[in-house]
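ZP: hey, is the thymidine-5'-phosphate complex queued? I don't see it on the tracker
AM: it wasn't, my bad. submitting now with these inputs:
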Amino acid sequence: MTKAKFITLEGIDGAGKSTHIDFIKQYFEKNQLDYFVTREPGGTELGERLRQILLNENMHPTTETLLMFAARAEHLEKVIIPNLSQGINVLCDRFSDATIAYQSGGKGVNIDFINALKKYTHGGLSPDLTILFDLPTNVSLERLKKTRTLDKFEQEAQVFHDRVRDSYLRLAKSEPSRFKVIDSTQSIISIQDIIEEFMGKVFK
Ligand code: TMP
């Protein structure tokens, strides 16, 4: 059995990652690869309940960080690890990089605290590929305004989104072999070509 891959999608709100999930699913199907698609916060019954609280209620950033990891611990034990162990590739819409970008980069939570939670929650497990959809925040916020009712994070000021974006870009720079950054100002077709190339490298 070939080792299943753990692939995560990241980016600021409105960077367009959701648009490309269906394309990635089609990639798995076209290449006859078993896959499971999930998201954070969420992915389990309890995790989805925590998501409702996290996206709608105001709380201290430390509380927010702990709840993100509570949902993640459940998700890892019940969904991510069991799928990977059975040889099923997992595509996860956000993971721990989001906690670093949003709670540490955006809200100033101590990075050592987050790294300790990461260590105890998922130890050595790290994504094989992280696709970071990157976009200037004035463009992403314009896009968001046109879509739907905004959640708690999406309603944050542009400076918050700037800090989140910077934090993601710093992470990508620090781990260039795992992160692939996509300029989300490009056309959907160009982005799909790039995604296909990245996926091809992971599943070669
Ligand atoms: P989504 O809209 O991409 O599904 O993500 C939900 C929101 O949750 C998004 O604004 C980012 C935020 N979030 C964090 O702040 N920290 C985290 O660890 C995760 C996974 C998401």
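AM: back. Strands lie at 6-11, 35-39, 89-93, 129-134, 179-183.
ZP: great, adding it to the tracker
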